[in-house]
Amino acid sequence: MNKNLIFRKSYVDGNWTTDGKKTFKVTNPANGKTIASVYDGGIKITKKAIKSANKASNNWSKYTAKERSKILEKWNDLILEYTESLAEIMTLESGKPINESKGEVEYGASFVKWFAEEGKRAYGDVIPSHTKSQRVIVIKQPIGVVAAITPWNFPLAMITRKVAPALAVGCTIIIKPADETPLTAIALAHLADKAGFPPGVFNLIVGTDSAGMGKTLCDSNLVKKISFTGSTEIGQLLMSRSSKTLKKLSLELGGNAPFIVFEDADIEKAVEGAILSKFRNSGQTCICVNRFIVHNKVYDEFTSKFLLAVSELKMGDGMDKNVNIGPLISQEAIKKTESFVKDALKNGGKLITGGNSIDKYFFEPTIIGNVNLEMKLAKEEIFGPVAPIFKFSSDKEAIDIANDTIYGLASYFYSKDINRCWNIAEKLQYGMVGINEGLISTEVAPFGGIKSSGQGREGSKYGIEDYLEIKYMCFGNIK
Ligand code: NAP
Fold first, then answer.
1. Which end of the chain is more exposed for a tag (fewer CB within 10 A), N or C?
2. Does position 400 have pLDDT exceeding 90, yes or no?
3. Rounded to two decimals, what is the model's pTM?
4. Catalytic: 218?
């Protein structure tokens, strides 16, 4: 691990700092070994970070978009220059297979590059006036201090996806990463320091008192917005806590993605897409397929080809470049996955492959057939390498099953019929739809969900709007 990138502390007002002497351990989920101990920041450091971000806000908002863009471009270049080191840190603390970690570094950097450009295009409007003596102008201004709370499953990209648009338009930022994966965030902060953001513009607080730190951010009148990626439960908590200060919120929450295979689908392509969208990060992504919904007529063919592809996956320590299924993040995650499998089998599910935890830290890629809507894994986010398969016999039935969930993040389906493609895409109650495609994330498109999967969009031209206020100016008495 490149120790030059690891400062083991929070980064506030341009300095590496902490609350006291207390530390917490960061462990490798592939073997439970400690890889570093980090100073445990808490409420005190959170308050310092708020003060620092607020102090820096006025000055940073006055930088031209081009000046801000130059520093973001430098940060992007540094992230890419350190791809190998960042990927290694990420794999060691999150378990993600090393090739996926490298992919995440590039994906994460792509947001920095994109918003470095997009910040220059945060245009306002000139509106045709309703009277002869007035002129109506709309300008866009940075919201102010933003807090970004991020999860362990994308320790880098979930940070850059929030930080880049915020900084590009002149907001300042406080990042609170998950305590499982603080090292990638620390490395990113180090590179941000090297890129030259002025003190207080970029702040990172690392610590285990997430409830206390979260409450401090929510209660503060100086923090104008919270951008959160994580579970629906914590998203709801942050929303209710933010009501007192009426903060703006972007919420990227949990999912329960359906993957429908129609009878006219290209089955080979569907299997390719299924592997990509189910088993990335060992099934621990918000857009991982949670439910396969397969037409009766192609159920056997899809299941047998899927089984063959699953049997080729290699499970093990993510540092091995041939591995595509790493460990799960924690023992709790293993227990939860086991309980979902047990519940499905008890309620009539048929185990097609897998079903067991291996060597304490891993869970076998698993397929379960004969699934019904009463099972836990049909209703709740699995977040593990388990693929349940439903059968259906009409388009209406497929749509009914797909939409029968509180979530609405990603969805996927495979069909060669253009009319069906339009109809189904329009009927799916989701923020994102992959049509004959299992990989949909990119910086150029709006990422986000509806229903209990959250609100707001990240990436694309839409993502920048979440960090801007609209101001209407009326020039009167013009002769
Ligand atoms: P989580 O438990 O909600 O944690 C997410 C972040 O919130 C972490 O930084 C966590 O800190 C912090 N947190 C926990 N309790 C808090 C509190 N009371 N107040 C303030 N912050 C608090 O979620 P997770 O288990 O890490 O991540 C998995 C979830 O994220 C899944 O549901 C997944 O679908 C979702 N996700 C969604 C997207 C999306 O774009 N929609 C992307 C990735 C993941 P600590 O870890 O330090 O406690």
1. C
2. yes
3. 0.97
4. no
